[in-house]
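Customer ticket, subject: "Can you confirm the structure for Nascent polypeptide-associated complex subunit alpha?"

Message body: Hello, I'm evaluating your service for our small team and ran a test protein. I'd like someone to confirm that this is what the system normally returns, since I don't have a reference to compare against.
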Amino acid sequence: MQGVGLKKVEGIQRVTLRRPRGHLYVVAKPEVFKSSVSDCYVIFGEVKSEDMSAFAQAQAAQLAQAQKQAGEDTAASTNEPGFNINDFTSSKKVDDDEEEDDAPIDESGVDQKDIDLVMEQVSCSRRKAVKALKDNNGDLINAIMSVS
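Agent reply: Thanks for trying us out. I re-ran your input and got the following:
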């Protein structure tokens, strides 16, 4: 490799190439060579494909299981009832449902296509989409960000 101007780079344990949609190509224990005239690298080794979205879901499941286990252990060791975060979030959902039943939606000054787009992008109720659009003066991006 030195004949073509490549010098071996020592100390690299893993090379990761990131692709769109969360796909990774990983080379464990690679042989890496760097060009002496430019910032180009040549990598040799066994390439394995990893899906980061599946990896992230597995990590989230493990974290949730660990938190659940820790919460049960804490509640059991102190003989005090532990609180459940779902108690707080479920009451918020009930409040939102009650709010939707109160009055008809005033859609004046808001474009129907914008309402439909916000509802589609964020999976929210029509009332929330209209409120977000009015709060953000019809700006779609800010409305979507405020609801999500």
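A couple of notes from the result: The longest strand covers residues 23-28. The helical segments are 52-78, 85-102, 112-122, 126-135, 140-147. Feel free to reply with more questions.
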